[in-house]
Design a protein that fits this description.
It is a single chain. The longest helix is centred in the middle third of the chain and has 15 residues. This protein has about 200 residues and is of the alpha/beta class. It has one domain: Rossmann fold. The chain has a 5-stranded mixed sheet with strand order 3-5-4-8-9, sandwiched between helices. A two-stranded antiparallel sheet has the order 1-2. Strands 6-7 form a two-stranded antiparallel sheet.
């Protein structure tokens, strides 16, 4: 499936990029269909490998339908322009690195389109690993704001978002740990493990 995305550059011309998404794999629920999760792979991976993993999850969560799309193949700047499957272009992982808002919006729109055909009584969500987690978190932001970064309305009501080993694009927070958060983690571990001689 392809998506066109228009951006306005310098002057009065509008630039248009088309994104060709790869094959989408679906793992049907083994029980009553109560939820649908779009699961997004990381950089260089594909939906087929995610669907194999999610097939194994069916024994624990039989009510979930898993949709595992494949990102477009595109040149990726952080890899020296090497083409691979990527939900958006990544130039550098730094606080002031550029973001590919056009690619993020196109990927979020593709995912929303996959979820838009689900029955009204089915809860929908998005999850992913690494770059897939970044797109899931970006989609959650679009849902909360009610619009994509380009201003087009976001119409899917996400009920769950999961991000594994990812980041929030545009947050400029990097992968830092706030000392207060670490204190909270230490307090939780102390209480949970019943450690003696430690302050809670």
């Amino acid at each position: 499936m392809s998506y066109s995305h228009q951006t306005v550059g310098s002057g009065s011309r509008a630039a248009r990029r088309t994104f060709e998404f790869g094959r989408t794999h679906v793992v049907r629920p083994k029980g009553k269909h109560q939820a649908t999760i779009v699961w997004l792979h990381g950089l260089g991976d594909n939906g087929s490998r995610c669907s194999v993993v999610n097939t194994h999850r069916q024994s624990k969560v039989k009510q979930i339908k898993w949709i595992c799309p494949t990102a477009p193949t595109r040149p990726v700047a952080i890899l020296g322009g090497f083409p691979c499957t990527a939900w958006f272009d990544v130039g550098e992982l730094s606080d002031d690195g550029p973001e590919d808002w056009e690619g993020l919006d196109a990927s979020a729109a593709h995912i929303a389109n996959l979820l838009s055909t689900e029955p009204a009584d089915v809860k929908v969500g998005i999850g992913g690993f690494s770059m897939g987690a970044a797109v899931a978190l970006y989609s959650a932001t679009c849902c909360a704001l009610g619009r994509y970064g380009n201003g087009i309305p976001y119409y899917v009501n996400l009920r769950a978002v999961v991000g594994l080993s990812g980041w929030l694009p545009g947050s400029r927070l990097g992968h830092y740990t706030v000392p207060k958060e670490m204190d909270e983690v230490c307090n939780w571990l102390t209480a949970r493990l019943g450690l003696e001689g430690s302050r809670a």
